[in-house]
Design goal:
The protein is mainly α. It has one domain: Glycosyltransferase, CATH 1.50.10.20. 48% of the residues lie in helices and 2% in strands. The protein has 14 helices and three strands. Strands 1-3-2 form a three-stranded antiparallel β-sheet. Strand 2 and strand 3 form a beta hairpin. 51% of the residues are buried.
Length: 338
C-alpha cells in the first residue's frame, strides 16, 4: 500500500480532484462570508459588508473578499510527499498563493491580501510558517525571523499570551489587545517547530501555553474568532504533538468532545484530526466512515463556517476549506514523537 493509500482512498482521490479542478489563476478560491455558522446563504464580500452596516451599524472599511484561509490551511494540511500529481500541483500553487499574503518587509503574514486595511496577524503568520516549513519552502534563517517576530509581540504588564496582532498594528491601537485560544495554539505549534524552538523557553510562549491550558479546562465553547468548539480542540491537539504539556489535558478534552455529535462535516473532520493527534480512545474508523459518507457527488465536503471576524457576526468557510480538512482527516499520519 502506498504512503497515500487508506481505506478511504477513493474519497481522498475525489477530494483532491475537486481541489485541483478548482484552481484558478490566483490559486484556490477564497472562503465565502455568511451570517450564520452553517453558511446556509453565502454572501459576496460587498453584500457581507453591506449587511453588517445595515443590520449592526458596523462598517468593516473593506469588502471581505480574497482572504487566504484556504491557501494557508492547504499548505499546512497537504502532504509534502504526496504521490498524486494533483496534490503536488496543489502544493506548488498554494505555496505561491501563501507568499502573496506576506507582509512586504516584515516576517508577518495576513488573512487578507496587501492593500486591504486589515493588519497582519499572529495566527496567519504562525499558520504560514507551519505550512511553509512542512514543505521545506522556508529557510532556517527565515523561520527564525518569523519566530522572533511572534515572540516580540508586546505581552504587557500582565504577562498575557501572544495577542492576535502586534502592538504596532493600527487595529491593535484602535481596538485594544485581542486574544484567542485557537490562534494561541496555532502560534505554539509554529514556535515548537525544530528551528523556532531554538528561541524557547520564552516568557511570551510560556504565557501563551498557560492561556491554552486554561481554555482546555473551561467550558466547551468557541472562541472570539472561531465559533466552533471543535476548532479549538483541533488547534490544541495539533499543538500537543509538539508541546508535551498539552498532551494529557487535550486528550481528555477530545475524548469528551467526541461523545457529542459534530453538527457539520467540517467539525467532524476537525474532531477526527484532534483524535488522531492526541491518540484519544475513540472510534476513529467509525468517525472517518461518517466523514467519508458526507462527501458530495462532486468530490467536495459541504461548506461550513470556520473563522469569524471577532465581534462582527460574519463567518467564513467554503467547500474547498472543508475538503482540505476532510482529505487530511481521511489520511492518517504519525504525529511527531509518537
Amino acid at each position: 500500500m502506498s504512503a497515500d493509500a487508506t481505506p478511504w482512498d477513493a474519497a481522498v482521490g475525489r477530494g483532491l480532484a475537486f481541489l485541483h479542478g478548482s484552481l484558478g489563476p490566483d490559486g484556490l478560491p477564497s472562503a465565502r462570508p455568511g451570517t450564520d455558522p452553517e453558511l446556509r446563504a453565502p454572501l459576496t464580500g460587498a453584500d457581507a459588508r453591506r449587511h453588517l452596516l445595515v443590520t449592526h451599524g458596523v462598517d468593516l472599511g473593506f469588502d471581505p473578499d480574497h482572504e487566504g484561509l484556504s491557501a494557508l490551511w492547504g499548505l499546512a494540511l497537504l502532504r509534502p510527499d504526496g504521490e498524486r500529481p494533483e496534490e503536488r500541483a496543489l502544493v506548488a500553487v498554494l505555496a505561491r498563493q501563501v507568499k502573496r499574503y506576506g507582509h512586504p518587509w516584515r516576517p508577518r503574514y495576513r488573512l487578507f491580501p496587501p492593500g486591504v486595511p486589515f493588519a497582519a496577524d499572529t495566527g496567519s503568520t504562525a499558520l504560514a510558517l507551519s505550512g511553509l516549513a512542512r514543505h521545506g519552502l522556508i529557510a532556517p534563517d527565515q523561520q527564525d525571523a518569523v519566530a522572533r517576530e511572534l515572540l516580540d509581540t508586546q505581552i504587557g504588564p500582565d504577562n498575557g499570551p501572544i495577542p492576535a496582532s502586534w502592538e504596532d498594528s493600527d487595529r491593535t491601537s484602535s481596538h485594544g489587545r485581542r486574544y484567542d485560544a485557537v490562534l494561541a495554539a496555532d502560534v505554539l505549534s509554529a514556535l515548537h517547530l525544530p528551528v523556532p524552538a531554538g528561541r524557547l523557553p520564552h516568557p511570551a510562549a510560556e504565557a501563551t501555553l498557560r492561556y491554552v491550558q486554561q481554555h482546555l479546562t473551561g467550558p466547551r465553547t468557541g472562541t472570539r474568532y472561531y465559533a466552533s468548539p471543535e476548532a479549538f480542540l483541533h488547534a490544541a491537539a495539533r499543538a500537543s504533538t509538539l508541546v508535551p504539556a498539552l498532551a494529557a489535558p487535550t486528550r481528555r478534552a477530545v475524548e469528551h468532545g467526541t461523545t457529542q455529535f459534530a453538527d457539520t462535516a467540517l467539525e467532524l473532520a476537525l474532531l477526527v484530526l484532534a483524535a488522531e493527534y492526541t491518540g484519544a480512545d475513540v472510534d476513529l474508523p467509525g468517525l472517518r466512515r461518517r466523514l467519508a459518507d458526507a462527501q458530495l457527488p462532486d468530490g467536495s465536503w459541504p461548506a461550513a463556517g470556520y473563522l469569524r471576524l471577532g465581534d462582527a457576526p460574519l463567518y467564513f468557510g467554503s467547500p474547498h476549506l472543508s475538503t482540505l480538512f476532510a482529505v487530511r482527516a481521511l489520511r492518517p499520519e504519525t504525529p511527531p514523537g509518537r
